[in-house]
Design a protein that fits this description.
There is one protein chain. 44% of the residues are buried. This protein folds into two domains: 13-41 and 60-157 and 313-352, Aldolase class I (TIM Barrel); 159-302, TIM Barrel (Alpha-Beta Barrel), CATH 3.20.20. It has an eight-stranded parallel β-barrel with strand order 1-2-3-4-5-8-9-10, surrounded by seven helices. It is globular and about 70 Å long. The protein has helices spanning 19-25, 30-47, 66-82, 119-135, 150-153, 170-177, 194-203, 244-256, 279-291, 333-351, and strands spanning 54-59, 87-92, 140-143, 159-162, 183-186, 207-212, 218-223, 229-233, 263-266, 297-303. 36% of the residues lie in helices and 15% in strands. The chain has 352 residues and is α/β, with parallel strands linked by helices.
Length: 352
């Protein structure tokens, strides 16, 4: 029989390095800080309607191989410079994966891909990679999933997402109210837009909530509210929602609640029927809507990797296929490059 009433199902607890200690070991240069501030400002200007370009969050569903991520980023930077007059390309750098039941939880939680959960190594590896990618001149995007990890990494992020499973969570709404970057809230997994639009009203307000400070101490966080929240349509309930009817329905709801009519379309998940081969069609459809006057579409998301498809994690990690996702299936680089260039050409021609 237990002799106490607490921690009965806790096997152990490891003390992490503090955010200050990890940032002190892996600091940002003043030049890099200036670059990140500039990237955030560009996205904010798009959301404010002061910049008529689209921003496109594009990259692997999740990062599991830092070397492949750098190779991808170098290609993306070349493409970003090529299309910069019409689009702002933001690289997906997702290190945390929400699981419906169980599975690999991302590079931060399990950097060795073997269930060892060396989170200190994961945080350092994630921050090291992000600094390298940001040094290339790319804005970075991630999903804000764990309420603690932003203290370690959010200084490198130019755009954040709150996923469909957590958009309705009070904890995540409070956390997002204190993030320093614009943040997109996905509609619910059932397709409901109300949870995302409700989240925008919450995130725009000040909050008081429990968190940690840079010294790793538990603290009461006082947030100011985030003025750059917006909706991400990703489909749901087995159906897509990037069609004109759903876009206008969301616009109407935002307008009725005094919220900016800014929409980002996720070309993956249920908008693609969970088939990556459909992402180009969704992407082009949204470009066409934008060309036809749907200025509420301010951004899009693509799941893209060096090579297409996905793979399971093998027992022998050395057998992993290079540049292939271990979570959601992705389109390959050649397809990514083709559809973004095609979109840039159409947008350029429309502006003339």
């Amino acid at each position: 029989m237990p002799t106490n009433t607490e921690n009965l199902n806790i096997e152990s607890a490891e003390v992490l390095l503090t955010p200050h200690e990890i940032k002190d070991e892996l600091p940002l240069s003043s030049e890099l800080q200036d670059s990140i501030i500039k990237h955030r400002g560009v996205i904010e200007n798009i959301l404010d309607g002061e910049d008529d370009r689209l921003f496109v969050v594009v990259g692997p569903c999740s990062i599991h191989d830092p070397e492949a991520a750098v190779d991808y980023a170098k290609n993306l930077k070349v493409l970003a410079d090529e299309v910069k007059d019409t689009m702002v390309l933001v690289m997906r750098v997702y290190f945390e994966k929400p699981r419906t039941t169980t599975g690999w939880k991302g590079l931060i939680n399990d950097p060795h891909l073997n269930g060892s959960f060396n989170i200190t190594t994961g945080l350092k590896r994630a921050r090291t990679l992000m600094i390298e990618l940001a040094d290339l001149g790319l804005p970075l995007a991630t999903e804000a999933l764990d309420p603690i990890s932003p203290q370690y990494l959010a200084d490198l992020i130019s755009w954040s997402a709150i996923g469909a499973r957590t958009t309705e969570s009070q904890t995540h709404r409070e956390m997002a109210s204190g993030l320093s970057s614009p943040v997109g809230f996905k509609n619910g997994t059932d397709g409901s837009m109300k949870v995302a639009t409700d989240a925008l009203q919450a995130v725009n307000s000040p909050h008081r909530f429990l968190g940690i400070n840079r010294q790793g101490q538990v603290a009461v966080i006082h947030s100011k509210g985030n003025a750059y929240g917006h909706v991400v349509l990703r489909g749901g309930g087995g159906k897509p929602n990037y069609d004109l009817k759903n876009i206008e329905k969301c616009e109407d709801y935002l307008e009725k609640n005094g919220l900016a009519k800014n929409l980002v379309i996720d070309c993956s998940h249920e908008n693609s029927g969970k088939d990556p081969k459909n992402q180009p069609e969704v992407f082009d459809s949204c470009i066409q809507k934008r060309l036809q006057g749907k200025d509420s579409i301010v951004g899009m998301m693509l799941e893209s990797n060096i090579n297409e498809g996905n793979q399971k994690i093998p027992e022998d990690i050395s057998q992993l296929q290079y540049g292939v996702s271990i979570t959601d299936a992705c389109i390959d680089w050649d397809t990514t490059e083709r559809i973004i260039r095609d979109a840039a050409d159409k947008l350029s021609a429309n502006a003339e």
